[in-house]
Design a protein that fits this description.
alpha/beta, eight-stranded mixed beta sheet, two-stranded antiparallel sheet, 6 helices, 10 strands, EC 2.4.2.7
Length: 180
């Protein structure tokens, strides 16, 4: 699917996004979505674009990734009248949990969902997050959901950090990026 054109969301992002040079390390231009999320009009346009993408991907359930994916995923689910699965960082949920460890540039991390109380087997889940960088977190979330029987219908993100291999790490799953 790739990048889709969402002119209102792109304009809202360009109007509100903050750029920070050399963060988190020298040579990196950090694209801060915090001002966009705090601006009611921009937030609405971003959520509308993500909801359109999730709808086109055939979402039956939204998966929001810790932490900004929670904000966006919850709003998208609400907009579409769907439920949302909060995919948490390790140690935030009481046991029993289903876990998925994955590699980061600087070590490993882990995502979890409850092992009980979720009826997601066979359901089409669209994963929502703010930024696609290396793709490790989204790939781990997709693997975690597949292990419990869900069908990952695709991924929708607001921004992509190019050149880090994120798209490749997601394999053949459809990907929608709001801001090219």
């Amino acid at each position: 699917m790739g990048t889709t054109h969402f002119p209102q969301a792109v304009a809202a992002l360009e109007r509100t996004m903050r750029y920070v040079e050399d963060f988190p390390e020298p040579g990196v231009l950090f694209q801060d979505l915090t001002p966009a999320l705090a601006d009611a009009r921009a937030f609405h346009e971003i959520v509308a674009a993500l909801a359109q993408a999730a709808g086109e991907l055939g979402a039956e359930l939204i998966g929001g990734l810790d932490a900004r994916g929670f904000l966006l995923g919850s709003a998208v689910a609400y907009e579409l009248g769907l439920g949302v699965v909060a995919i948490r960082k390790k140690g935030k949920l009481p046991p029993p949990v289903v876990s998925e460890e994955y590699s980061l540039e600087y070590g490993t991390s882990c995502l979890e969902i409850p092992a009980e109380g979720l009826d997601i087997a066979g359901r089409r889940v669209v994963l929502i997050d703010d930024v696609l960088a290396t793709g490790g977190t989204l790939a781990a979330a997709a693997s975690l959901l597949r292990r419990v029987g869900a069908r990952v219908a695709g991924h929708a993100v607001v921004l992509e950090v190019p050149g880090l291999g994120g798209r490749e790490r997601l394999g053949e799953s459809p990907l929608v990026i709001i801001h090219p």
